[in-house]
Design goal:
single chain; 294 residues; mainly beta; 18 strands; globular; disordered C terminus
């Protein structure tokens, strides 16, 4: 049990059975469980992951259940067992597309009161013209804040946890970050805005994005999409008889270095494009794209 605030704590559990592994994150206030996130991983006989079962629930109330497993062509299947819209009063989804026709579908669900709330976000990445996702991110946010009337004591906590899923080496690759602490007020303000506007963006809340690295999974602008392709081992894609090689450069990489490697010079293989920002004479966020005919 780990304390994350006055009278607020979380408990992390890891169990192994014949069928697979179970990871459980429980939230407690004054010693009572107020919410649980459980990930159950089952395995095939050959040792590869068979299914990922996600369960979100509060005491005496199941919230959301879904299953993820591997499909053909390094894609993922995503099944709703208990849909969000049957359980959360605030629920919506939206889709955005990037420059190359890839689709990002985001499902959002929220339930809470003035001083407490749960927000669940499931984001699917889809390649151009493909219905099944190639990567999925699951994020859960919880916040609680209460000031006791007859004392100065206050209970509060803001917690987030994220799980990233993709196919790697013919197996499901699961990356689960430990719960991260945030100011409860930040999350409560976020919850209020989401429930009022039914609008959600990872990058709308800079504190959350910075701490949980959400920018790397957000694809509403094409610069961030480059980082996402790198994460899923997608440093080259094939579309409309062209191959796009993407290179991200750090802030301390100079233009002289680029010229030395002759990345600016067009040749018979294709075209080179450079984009970036010039701040006080320095290039910041340089991006090089090499288009090659195939």
């Amino acid at each position: 049990m780990k304390s994350v605030g006055t009278n607020v704590s979380i408990k992390l559990e890891h169990a192994v059975s014949v069928e697979g592994k179970t990871y459980t994150v429980s939230h407690y206030i004054d010693g009572k469980s107020v919410g649980i996130l459980r990930l159950w991983i089952t395995y095939r006989e050959d040792g590869l992951v068979k299914d990922l079962d996600f369960i979100f629930y509060e005491p005496a109330r199941s919230i959301f259940t879904f299953v993820i497993n591997k499909a053909e062509n390094n894609l993922l299947n995503y099944y709703h067992v208990l849909p969000i819209n049957q359980l959360y009063e605030t629920n919506f989804n939206n889709e955005t597309s990037n420059l190359w026709g890839g689709i990002t579908k985001t499902d959002v669900a929220y339930r809470g009161v003035e001083n407490e709330g749960n927000l669940l976000v499931v984001q699917q990445k889809r390649k151009p013209g493909v219905e099944k996702p190639c990567a999925i991110r699951v994020a859960h946010y919880y916040a609680y804040s209460k000031q006791f009337c007859f004392s100065r004591q206050k209970s509060e906590a803001g917690l987030s946890i994220t799980v990233d899923i993709r196919v790697l080496n013919n197996d499901l690759d699961v990356s689960m970050k430990d719960p991260y602490e945030h100011p409860s007020l930040v999350f409560l303000q976020m919850f209020e805005q989401v429930s009022r506007t039914w609008i959600w963006k990872w990058t709308a809340w800079s504190h959350c994005a910075a701490q949980t690295h959400m920018q790397k999974f957000e694809t509403e602008n094409n610069g961030e999409e480059m980082e996402w392709f790198r994460q899923i081992r997608g440093n080259s894609i094939s579309n409309q008889a062209q191959r796009l090689s993407i290179t991200m450069l750090k802030e301390d990489d100079s233009v002289m270095r680029l010229k030395k490697e002759r990345w600016f010079e067009p040749n018979h293989e294709g075209r080179v494009r450079l984009s970036g920002s010039l701040v006080r004479g320095r290039w910041i966020g340089i991006l090089v794209m090499h288009m090659m005919e195939i």
